[in-house]
Amino acid sequence: MLQPYDERNKDILVNINGQLVHRDQAGISPFDSAVQNGDAVWEGLRLYNGRIFKLMEHLDRLRASALALAYRQIPSHDAIIQELRRTLQANGMTDGVHIRLTLSRGVKYTSGMDPRVNTGGPTLIILAEHKPPVYDRAGIRLITSGIRRIPPDCLDQNIHSCNMLNSILAKIQANQAGVDDALMLDIHGFVAETNATHLFLVQNGVVLTSNTDACPEGITRATVLELCEEHGIPHRVGNISLSQVYRADELFCTGTMGELVPVVEVDGRPIGEGKGGPMTARLSELYQELTRTSGVQVV
Description:
Blueprint: E1 13-16, E2 19-22, H1 33-37, E3 40-48, E4 51-52, H2 55-68, H3 77-91, E5 97-104, E6 123-130, E7 140-144, H4 165-177, E8 181-185, E9 191-194, E10 198-203, E11 206-209, H5 219-230, E12 235-237, H6 242-246, E13 250-255, E14 259-266, E15 269-270, H7 278-293, E16 296-297
Parallel strand pairs: 7-8, 7-14, 11-12
Antiparallel strand pairs: 1-2, 1-6, 3-4, 3-5, 4-16, 5-6, 8-9, 10-11, 10-13, 13-14, 14-15
């Protein structure tokens, strides 16, 4: 799964601390914390017909991550929404858009990791691209990575940080194996997530997903659980073993960038009938209906 280049993004304007600049001229200081130490937090947003889906939940998570990292200054939700509007309007974007929202601790007055050398306030980057959901709707294939997800006593994965080397190493393994993504386990051998998405399985009509001890509290993941609750679909959150994955009736992954997509193969083994199943299709339809009818109007 390699994302293609979209010619419509050739001349997009990127918003860096309120300054709209052509993508080829956009840049941040080599003294910025994102460059120096990967000290930044981020959110992925999706625009549907002028509305950003679950915007407030994403901004709440951004703020929570920044607070966990002791950022001294955090832009308000209103300030960020204003810049989102400016960016989308400047690019003439109304639908089929993915937005990468990044907040770093800001520029240091000298190189180093000590947050006390950050005195200029945070850096806010808004990158909006024309980008449909990135996965093949027919289904994707996974391998189980040898790279384990980081436990919370080492680095809490609910801090939604730009430090993603753990996931990148797993993605490299998937690329080398010629599959779409990698399934990642926690240090106890239970399923955490993939290198990029949360994972759900369906067994005997029950929808199961792992807890978030070793993965972020996904917005799309939470939405799927809410849909299950609202529509009377049996569901459970807890530890999931790899053998449960292999014998699942259905498997699907969730995320803002890809929405809901079936997983049809893991480690060379077909899942269920080797194609998307009825529960995945039902939840996908419910999710798409929600994105059509809700969200914060920004353009």
